[in-house]
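Sample entry as discussed:
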Amino acid sequence: MGILNSLFGNGISQELQEQLTKKFKSIVDPTSQQDLDSLNAISDLKIKKDTLSLTIAMPYPCKSLWPSIEQNIVHELTQLGEINHVTVNFQTKVVSHDAQKGVSPLANIKNIIAIASGKGGVGKSTTSVNIALALQQEGATVGLLDADIYGPSIPTMLNIKEKPQSPDGKSMQPLAAYGLQVMSIGALIEEDSPMIWRGPIVTQTLTQLLKETNWDDLDYLIIDLPPGTGDVQLTLSQQIPVTGSVIVTTPQQVSLIDAKKGLKMFEKVEIPVLGIIENMSTHVCSNCGYEEAIFGAHGGENMAKEYKVDFLGALPLDKRIREESDKGKPTVTAEPNSDIALKYRKMAHKISAQIGIKKRNYANVFPNIVIQNN
């Protein structure tokens, strides 16, 4: 019965308790496909006369779905004879979840999501930015770490011009953009400065950017990885607690070959793959409206079926995405009600919902126990 037993009381009859439990088990969250009882989403419940008041704490950010969930709750519960009115309050309650074995959780970061691609040029950074913004708009506190040391593009996409500040000379304050907390090597160097570094320096820089940034109680940190399966990805798997990963690919076979390598890498290091996003799925002519799969059709979807992971969705090759990224105004912010923004938002729902139903990590819940010899 989940958490319901502890909420019943205040004169609620046994019969009504059973009816309410049955109703909550019949109300299913559309993204996770879990009922409200299984999600432990009911955090408060009171009945006064014929009015039922309850608080729903969703385990993933989904503000845009609240009205439809509320509508379903009110419809179901007012069918009970003892209840004529229902008031629903919503909360977003994101907790820390398990990462790969042997890696300690980081303070002030509940969940880390790595967004990767096997090949460059597939729109991974654009996807990372828009997914991060979608999660933020849906009610989460979100950070974005640009881990592409050689080709940092996040500052351009978010129109970040300032340098990070270091009040104590030891750590940096994250930069702010559209409600996100952001860090990138691109904000520390000149735009045209090449990073002529070997692998060990690159991985050390990534670790410093992550651990020496004063992230402020993040529900999610999105890490935009460089292409490939090299030093940065290895450091990520060995030293950074990653809750899950997302693979971005185009439907083209050349892209899929490398995307599969990235997926197998995450499997070997025991980082769950939350799903696959197919970018540049089709092109719609801006003049005549003709839609064509110029890079092939259903490549990402077929890959997801082959490896038994979720297909998170497909995005078109649309010049608006490119134009808005170049201007530092990502699509989710520039056109929040557009079809493309809705696609990003749905992907963000799927990613965070998968995390929301994972096993919780209690490492940050319990205090450290120190034994001293006096």
Remarks:
- The two ends are 48 Å apart (CA to CA).
- The chain has a mean pLDDT of 87.
